Description:
It comes from Caenorhabditis brenneri. It is a single chain. This protein has 312 residues and is an alpha/beta fold. The chain has helices at 14-22, 26-35, 38-41, 128-143, 158-166, 188-195, 237-244, 259-270, 293-296, 298-307, and strands at 50-58, 63-72, 82-89, 104-109, 112-117, 120-124, 147-152, 171-177, 202-208, 226-229, 249-252, 279-282. The longest helix has 16 residues, at 128-143.
Amino acid sequence: MTTLSTFPLLRLPIVALRVVFDQFPLEVLVFLTVYYPKLCQWRLIVGKRYNLRDLVVSTSSEKSWIGFDVFGKYELPVLNHKLQRFHAITNLHQRTTAPFPERTVNIGIDGERFDCTDNAFNTYWKDVMIGIITFTDHVCNMFKVDVQILTIQKSTMWALDWIQLKRSAPLRQLIIYNDEEKEKKLTEEDVRGILTNSRCTAYSLAIEVDFPEKLKINYTPSKFKALKIKYGSWLTLENLYILGETCQEIVIIGSQFTVKDLEAIMNHWLSGRLSRLRCLSIDRVKGYLGLPFSRIFKKYIKKLDRKLFYEW
């Protein structure tokens, strides 16, 4: 590999180098520092041009990635908002498969060929856990940023303990997906650790995974600002009431609730027992069949308007 001393670009004066590096897109800067770590020590890459927010770490059993929302100081608006991804992959045969073929170019470095796209590049590891930890630490140290959003599956629950050790502040959002290996399911103990923030703290939680069907929440959940439940067939009235005592906003997709259940929820809410709940959204109601919904719940509307206000 070319050394720093023989890398032609680095023969430029330091002031000129800073001007050149300031024109590079984010993924190129990361690419260069992976291969030439001493560039960080030279203070050529300081990240002042970027307002990086929402550093995302997404873990899966085969292909994990970290990404940014990037707001750069560009003149063209189309470039101001762009998600950059850096993949950590275990399957080495994927070297020949470009992630975005229509936008991929092949570049050469010291006789080796690499697939490179305009918004992503791949790194290959024997162990995806080591890859994502190493690469995340590199980017965090390089740009002085921290992980804000973490996505996990059953097979990557290790990421909860890693983030808990890495961060002193809670995540902005934790997202749980169904595992690519369908036989791997979350246990009730896994769910307890997630809902109580005991393994990893987060301000908001998105549950996009099947929870155990007979799950019973008999403990106090964490005080989430927002809780999204995508597969809500496991969600009973009792579970919802417990979640509503601590969560500020709850969004439920795919529930088994009926119109009668909704009336029970309204009465329970107005009784003052859902003390923290400010917003509740349920997208599907069983047995509705075009009934005059507003007429059924008219008696609750004014009471809710007087009682509720929502603060984020």
